[in-house]
Amino acid sequence: MLIEKKKELTMEEIVNRVQEIPPFPQTVMRIIELTNDPKSGAKDLEAEIMKDQGLTTQVLKLANSAFYRGRRNIDTVVDASVLLGFSAIQSMVLATVVGSVMDRELPGYALEKEALWKQSQISAIMTRTIAKKVKYKKPDQAYTAGLLRDIGKVILDKFVQESYEEIYNLVENEGKSFIVAEEMVLGFHHGQIGAKIAEQWNLPEELVEVIACHHNPAVAFVNPELVAITHISDSLVMMMGIHIGIDGLAYEFFSDSVRLLNLDDTILSEIMSEVADIISKDDILLEL
């Protein structure tokens, strides 16, 4: 009974803390609307982005990174919109604005300052790379999914820190995965909390589902393919040992996701090698 009361109080606190996460600025919300509107043109998008000089600079910096650009230099937002597409612009804008939320130290997850942000950027690159490999129709949506999949850790960190011994005992002595132990002790896990943040930001249902289910892709029903891509990406980032944090030491991998996407060990190794090459050559992606 005492445990139940503790969970109820904690959930109330967490809901309040989710509400404290600032909504996207109005300019960003307008950009997201424009990129989702088939009637919008490149000039409309440029006019909105250029209201924020810092955002304009970051978008053009990303557009000219080796990750996005072809052989042609991109000098204007219109060029970026035409050459890369609206979905890519939306991904760049989201990458630029969420950094301030995700760059903090998270001691509950053993992540130093900026570690979650850098890991999330690499996960986004990995997710987009996998999406292109399996010919997923929206690779830039996959980039956003990889970027935001662990946003819930920002809120849950304080509570994981306070309950660390209980969670660690379940992982170390009972063989539970970290996210299962997280839910057993707290009554919820960081994916579920992250989904609440995504809903507050009015993100599409597909992205809300990815954040909620990326540790358990079997329960996805809105877009199982996107959730599988993100789950595999998350797993590969953990295998590469990139800012894995304490929860990466007890990560449960669902091989059904690999079968769903018709991948194999050889292709997964190629993907990891390709991503390692991208991040070694393109520091811009990690400097936002």
Briefly, what is this?
The protein is an all-alpha fold and 288 residues long.
Structure description:
By secondary structure, this protein is mainly α. It has 16 helices and no strands. It is 66% helix and 0% strand. It is globular and about 55 Å long. The protein has a single domain, classed as Orthogonal Bundle (Hypothetical protein af1432). The chain has helices at 2-20, 26-36, 42-49, 53-63, 77-84, 86-102, 115-133, 139-148, 153-162, 164-174, 178-186, 190-200, 205-213, 224-239, 256-260, 265-281. The relative contact order is 0.12. Helix 2 runs antiparallel to helix 6 (86-102), helix 6 packs parallel to helix 8 (139-148) and helix 7 packs across helix 16 (265-281). The longest helix has 19 residues, at 2-20. Residues 1-6 have low confidence and may be disordered.
